[in-house]
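**Fold tokens**
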Amino acid sequence: MLQTTDFSLPGVNDHPKLACSFVRWRPLQAENGSAASNLGSTRSSAPSLRLSLVFFHCNGTHKETWLPTVEHLFDALHALPGAQFTVIEAWAIDSPQHGHAARLNDRVLLELPDGLDMDQWNAPVNTLFKSGLIAGDRVVGIGHSAGSVSLITMTLGYALDRLPFSSMIVIEPPMMPPKMLKYAQEKRLPMLRAIELAKTRQDVWSSREEAREWFGRQFPWRRWDKRVFDLFIEHALHDLPTATYPSQREGVTLACTRAQDSAAYTKFKIGFTALDRLTKLCASLPVHCIFGETIDMV
């Protein structure tokens, strides 16, 4: 069982208007049998290294999408006696235009129809690190797809010998050099077709149940794990009205609007920046890269 705590914080530095939304999961029982909430107690009987995990979601989803992964991870760690480390908590971050954060930033996002730039996208994780809420001795960053780009580029404000993460895991990173992007554009690869679909797909449904039925028939949602799909229906949709649809009083719409979703797919230069930064990070800390078995997007 996990203890779930939600946090909403104001933005910091150059992005005070962008509110931040986080969720923290901690095991109710730590791996050594002691209460997880007793984080400040003596560590004589516990593993010497305490890790915090910070998860970054992909475009079009939300922070809670990581919950099944986190549950599986803590179950696996509980069954791993004698480990030299323990994961004491896992954090997940909503990008400013996704999930609950999108509701908090509803009206602000209307002022940014061309999407967020790199610094705006990374504002929440910088807020989290400045908050003092992370309890681990070391922090492992884990990013999926666009989340891996955010994970990598947020380190640009840090010297390579003072990085906020002790290691990184990047999953299906959508990064490529300019020549490869040109090839992808010429060949009309699926990743490029996704941009066009994001601009025009249905984004209003009469009810959450109607939305569930619609997404259940569409790629890629119809292929998702049921737990992840259910969380998407719960957290990636907002009840109407919203700032985008102020006159509609019933039904649901996308938390990440079509404008914000499609704009994110066009930020190719951020991907170039991330790839260049990754070459430097790999010389400074452990980086593990994961690609899926099915080549359907990247």
